[in-house]
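Hi V.,

Quick status before I head out on leave. The structure for the redesign project is tokenized and pasted below; the design run finished overnight.
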């Protein structure tokens, strides 16, 4: 998800790793997703080598050099593919990267999002049906409680994943509007220059 997020950010405006890092820290994204602010610079270097972003210029700020990157056409195409891949992934209870995908969905056409989500819901329902079949086969009066709970957890997880994706479809227009607002917000604010980022993030978009 770090790759998709950086490409998304740079699709809004050219910037440097420090600003992206500050945005992640200000949102506390590194606390509840697998996106870690410390991996930004490594990811930027890798994306540059892959030709997905390119160096626009170097800036000197307080005796420190900052590399300002911009996304390439290849990077824009890759962003679309990355977002589609994220939509196809499973959701995990804690720290799931998918929890932050709905505000950055304006990198894909709405009809493509709907098609991916509907396909994923179908797969989740098939998985649930298969799991329930095995539950009926495996669970009986002699089954260990720990095994019973395993099946209950798996089915419960699938239920919530289906529910999350159905909610995404139901509120798709709202999510797309939110995504546009966040894009405008990122475009308007240089987070690397914000002293109290908590106050900025607390303001209504």
């Amino acid at each position: 998800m770090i790759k998709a997020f950086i490409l998304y950010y740079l699709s809004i405006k050219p910037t440097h790793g420090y600003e992206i890092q500050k945005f992640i820290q200000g949102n506390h994204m590194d606390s509840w997703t697998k996106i870690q602010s410390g991996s930004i610079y490594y990811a930027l270097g890798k994306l540059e080598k892959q030709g997905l972003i390119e160096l626009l210029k170097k800036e000197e700020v307080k005796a420190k050099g900052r590399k300002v990157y911009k996304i390439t056409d290849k990077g824009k195409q890759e962003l679309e593919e990355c977002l589609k891949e994220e939509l196809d992934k499973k959701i995990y209870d804690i720290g799931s990267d998918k929890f932050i995908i709905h505000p950055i969905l304006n990198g894909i056409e709405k009809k493509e999002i709907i098609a991916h989500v509907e396909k994923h819901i179908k797969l989740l329902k098939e998985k649930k049906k298969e799991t329930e079949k095995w539950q009926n086969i495996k669970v009986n009066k002699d089954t260990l409680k720990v095994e019973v709970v395993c099946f209950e957890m798996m089915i419960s997880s699938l239920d919530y994943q289906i529910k999350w994706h159905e909610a995404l479809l139901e509120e798709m227009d709202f999510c797309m509007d939110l995504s546009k607002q966040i894009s405008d917000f990122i475009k308007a604010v240089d987070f690397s220059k914000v002293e109290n980022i908590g106050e900025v993030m607390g303001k209504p978009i």
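Above is the designed sequence. The radius of gyration is 20 Å.

G. will cover questions while I'm gone.

Best,
W.
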